[in-house]
């Protein structure tokens, strides 16, 4: 074999890699660091309940002031407070009195195991197999409702997230 033929492919690959690295630096688009911070806080389930197709677009809209910090129903009040603090925007009075976070549960009498909900859940909070009863992992469920919209049996119902249902709060410190 000819040495030129053997070395031509690695040299070509190296040249292409170098050209791509220069192009990446030249055409790089600087992103606002606040957008990255917002996006890290959002659940990133792409449920669309905020009115936008995904959490990335919602983060950009929040940084531009087009969406308020309470626009994400799956995030609940805790996320709204974090976003309010990050964006230095006060929560509206409506946001402060919102109901407790909701999750879904499946009515075992109605579930026929069609797996439509299982496939639609962006958080993998639904467990089950084809033609078997499904269940919802309430620790993971965000209450986005995507499973509710595809269920042909209307087997879903919203309930208060069990974490918040007992009025749970951090205990007050005891002073000695």
Automatic annotation (TrEMBL):
UniProt cross-references to Gene3D superfamilies, sorted A to Z: 3.30.70.20, Electron transport complex subunit B, putative Fe-S cluster (1.10.15.40)
SUPFAM superfamilies: 4Fe-4S ferredoxins
Pfam (any one): Fer4_21
UniProt entry tagged with the keyword ATP-binding: no
Organism domain of life: Bacteria
Domain 4Fe-4S ferredoxin-type: 102-131, 132-161
Keyword terms of this UniProt record: 4Fe-4S, Electron transport, Iron, Iron-sulfur, Membrane, Metal-binding, Repeat, Translocase, Transport
Alphabetized InterPro entries for the sequence: 4Fe-4S_dom, 4Fe4S_Fe-S-bd, 4Fe4S_Fe_S_CS, Elect_transpt_cplx_RnfB/RsxB, Fe-S_Ferredoxin, RnfB/RsxB_Proteobac
Residues annotated as domain 4Fe-4S: 30-89
Protein name per Swiss-Prot or TrEMBL: Electron transport complex subunit RnfB
Species this protein is from: Psychromonas marina
Gene: rnfB
């Amino acid at each position: 074999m000819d040495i030129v033929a053997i070395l031509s492919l690695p040299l070509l690959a190296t040249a292409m890699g170098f050209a791509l690295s220069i192009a990446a630096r030249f055409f790089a688009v600087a992103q606002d660091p606040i957008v990255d911070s917002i996006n890290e806080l959002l659940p990133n389930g792409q449920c669309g309940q905020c009115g936008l197709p995904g959490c990335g677009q919602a983060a950009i809209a929040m940084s531009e002031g087009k969406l308020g910090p309470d626009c994400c129903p799956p995030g609940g009040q805790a996320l709204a407070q974090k976003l309010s603090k990050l964006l230095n925007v006060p929560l509206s009075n409506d946001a402060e009195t919102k109901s407790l976070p909701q999750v879904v549960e499946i009515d075992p009498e109605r579930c026929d195991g069609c797996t439509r909900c299982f496939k639609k859940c962006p958080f993998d909070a639904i467990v089950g197999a084809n033609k078997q009863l499904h269940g919802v992992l309430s620790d993971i469920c965000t209450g986005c409702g995507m499973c509710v919209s595809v269920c042909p049996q209307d087997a879903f119902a919203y309930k208060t997230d069990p974490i918040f249902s007992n009025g749970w709060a951090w205990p007050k410190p005891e002073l000695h």
